[in-house]
Here is the input.
Amino acid sequence: MLSPARHLSISWLSWLLAFTCFGVISFGCAPVSSADLEENREAETNSKPETNTKTEPDKKSELDGKTYLSSLSGTVRIPASRLPIKVYLAPMPKGVNFKDSYQVMLKDAFAHFQDSLAAGSFLPALSFVYTDKAEEATITCRFTDNEKEMHFAQEGGVTELVMDSDGIMKAKITILVPRRDCYIKKVALHEIGHALGLAGHSPDQRDVMYFSVQPDLNVDPKEVKLSARDIDTLKAIYSQSEKPSPIVKVEGMERSAAGRAMIISNEGSAAYKAGNFDLALKKYQEAYQADPTNAVIARNLGGLYVNLGSINLMARNVKVAETFFKNGIDVLSKHPDNKPFCRQACTAYGSLLMMTGRAAEAKIFIEKGQGK
Here is the structure.
């Protein structure tokens, strides 16, 4: 029979491996176009509607290339282990700003991606399956008429990626309405592109992944399609033999409070992976203070609290461990998306209470860990 100390050590090593720190990347799509490609591609608030579709001579070779990989902030992708890609479409909200046709445009956009990246064109083939459970999905999509949910005042959509060591783990797409159906489809294609790993924008306005969409776009939605360069760029990313390197920061993220918080959280994840827990904790706390509404930032901070609790418990620093567990449960309990992680934290804390002779309190937290 294992001694209590030996059993404790094995048990808590499993808890140390239970939490992974995630990086977050965010991208937006602005509903305006710049007449001058020399201007900052991300300067949405200063740009004007497109009036001249010609590109400058010194840009020609770049724009005529088969891909725009060199213009991206980096390469990320959904790993083969997470294929086919599960997609969750949130129910359409009630109100005059929401139309059923928006959901149709979104589904058309996914279908267009799947048709463009069909089996045989490259390996692995990307395909989508719909699920009615948001927690199971890799990509979740929703519509909003609240402009404050966009990172910048002029955006038409935003995509937030959650990364782990294998690649893209989750992608959350939010599209702003009301707009014309053709506009919704183009924004949907653009944001799905980000969700699949197109981390950045094309310099060519003929591509769906150009940084903006003309606000007066008025064409048949069937004519809104990916360009050959959009398709070839995505194929290039998924055809790479080496695992894409993670991105900590994307151009333009620092312009919003939410973006700055994500940058800080990503810096914390980099410190965590390097084994610098003190710096990781400092960064996560700073990020959480800047944006306590971000579930991933809360998950990173809460998970690190629990891991530090485990480490201190193994070192017999019970009081310190208890403080870390309590902090972790407090942070994780504030976000519905973090319920599974909160249950793990409750079970861990319940074990500590049981080991220190507080059986009645331990029962409460162990039952919480079981979802009771």
